[in-house]
Structures are given as C-alpha cells and as structure tokens.
Amino acid sequence: MTIKRYIIVSNIRTVLVTLLGLFLIGFVFQLVMFEIMGANLEDASVLQEMARQGMEYESQDWPRIFALIYIVFSVALISIITNLLNYRLIKYITRPLQPLGEGVRHIHDNNLGFRINYQNDDEYRPICDAFNEMAAKLEESAARRQKDEANRRELIAGISHDLRTPLTSIKGYLEGLETGVASTPEMRDHYFTTIKNKTDDMEHIIEQLFLFSKLDMDEFPLALRRVPLMPAIRDMIEEVAQEYDQRGLTVHITESHRDVFVLADMIWFRNVLINILENSVRYKTKDPASMEISAGIVNNSVFLRFADNGPGVSAEVLPKLFDVFYRADPSRSIKGSGLGLAISKKIIERMGGAIHAELPGSGGLAVVIRMPIVRDR
Asked: Is 255 helix (H, G, I), strand (E, B) or coil?
C-alpha cells in the first residue's frame, strides 16, 4: 500500500473509530442518567450524604454534570484514538527510512557493494532503487579508478623499461667509441648505425606515447567521413603487401560486402591496420607467416577480422592485450612498445566501434573490429 493511500485509510479509520467511541460513550451515559433520574432522589440516605459533603442538590444540575463528564470522556477518547493511530502512521512512514539510513552508513564506510532489498510497492521503492543505482555507479567508478591507477603504474613501469633498454645500448656503444673498442671504420660505422637505430626506437616510443595520451584525453580530432570499408581496406593492403611479404608475412583479403559504408578516418584506420600487421610480424613463428582478412555483417554492424597463424596467446590473456604496455610474456618486451594495440583500441572507439581479440580454432590470434554501418548519406 502506498503512503498516500495509507494516510487516507488511517484518517477514515480515525473518524469511524472516534464516532463509534462517542456513540458508545453517549449511549452508556444516557443509560446511567436515565437510571439516576428515575431513582428516588428524595431518598434520605442520598440527601444525608449530600448534606455531609456540603452539597446542595438541584435536579436541574444533573444534565449539565453529565454533559461535562461526556465532553471530558469524549476529548480523552478522541486524544487516545488519534495518538494510537498517528503512532501507527508515523511508524509505517518511518520504518522504510531505517534501511536507507543503513545504506548511507555502508556507503560512508566505503562498502559500495551494499544494496537495499526493499520489496514494498510504495513511494519509497523508487528512492531505494535510485539508491541501489547510485551505489552501483559508485562501485563501478571506484573499480574504474583502481584500474586507471593500476594502468598508470604499468604505464610508468613500461615507459621506464622501454626507454631504459635503448638508452643502455646507446650508452654502451658510445663508451665503445670513446674507449676505442671500435678501432676500425667498419666497426665505427656499425656502432653509429646501432646508435641511430636505438635513437629511432626511442623516438617511436615517445611518439606513440604522445599519441596515446592525446587520444586518452580526447584531444586528437578525427576527420570522419562515409567510406566503403572493404575497398578502402583492400587499397591499404595493396600499398603495404609487398613490404610485409618481404618481412615474412603474406596477407590475404577476402573480397566481400563491397557496398558496406562506415564513418571512419581512414588515415588513422590505416594506423590501426599497421599496428595489427606489425604484431603479427613481430611474433610470427612460421616463415612465411600468413594473415587472413575477412568481413561479416551482424545486425547493423560490420565485423572486420584479422586472423594470423602465429603462436597466439592463452585465453585469460585476451582481455588484457589492449591494455597499455601489456605483454603476454616477458620475452616479448624486446619486440614492441606495448602501445600499438592500446592506441588501436582508442582510435576505433573514437570512431564509434569496438575491438577485441579471439583465439581461432585453427590456432593463432584473431583481432576483430566492429564498426556500425552507415546506410544513407
């Protein structure tokens, strides 16, 4: 029962009970008065008693006395009935405040998993539901904050590791040049080339980190336009196919869904494509390695699938592949910056899509990109 309905019922109950009580009191007093008025009021014992108390009796005083007594009893009855029913009403209204107060104390004590189990269908139900929704959002926000803090720690550790490695190499080769270890022109050229390559690696890491920071803060504008996805993918693959073929990765693309259009910035979509190809090249175990690119449509989205025949990863690692500086095993640390897939995820999400990794039944690793289809101009 809602509180509004309960108040109405309580008021009706108060009126009915009060009227009934007044009726009963009046009926009883009327019987008593009739009994007394019908008695022999000139009885000597009665007169003697009244004389002893110093009272003078007049028959016309009895109606006023009974009226006064009736009013006093009526007021007392109304007060008692009203207080009892109001107590029940107040208790009915304030009882649901107890779980709300308990919930607030739990939230204050940082127990964000607490939920109010309120079953009554009244005005407090939306409040309790709103409290549970607020607690759920606070719990989600706290979990996200903890994850962000862990990511920041990993980011700092990853930056330190990835910059320390080339710096150590550069320092070693410079000391070799300084102490005359590189005594021949060929060795000096080799040392200078290595130093240059390590410097390029550091520059690449810093550029990737800067790009990720810009994307993470939503400060990197994208020029989205309506493009046919598969023809655009084929054009990009044709540009880089020869380079990756020379590096031991053969790329095959299945021509399908040529009329599917998406909103995308193809310059940055090319960045995503290159990151996926680079991962397959770095961690390939077969020579030549291969990658199959295909597309499928589910509901109003197109799913672009990049499946290679590399070593793959374990199932529990899949959700972490797109975290900043995450590597499935320590041995991979020398092969990449750990930022490529994290940047790819940011770019795809900025375009309104999603990206995840799967383990194909035939082995290897598959990266799947989902993009919403744009059907009109």
From this structure: coil
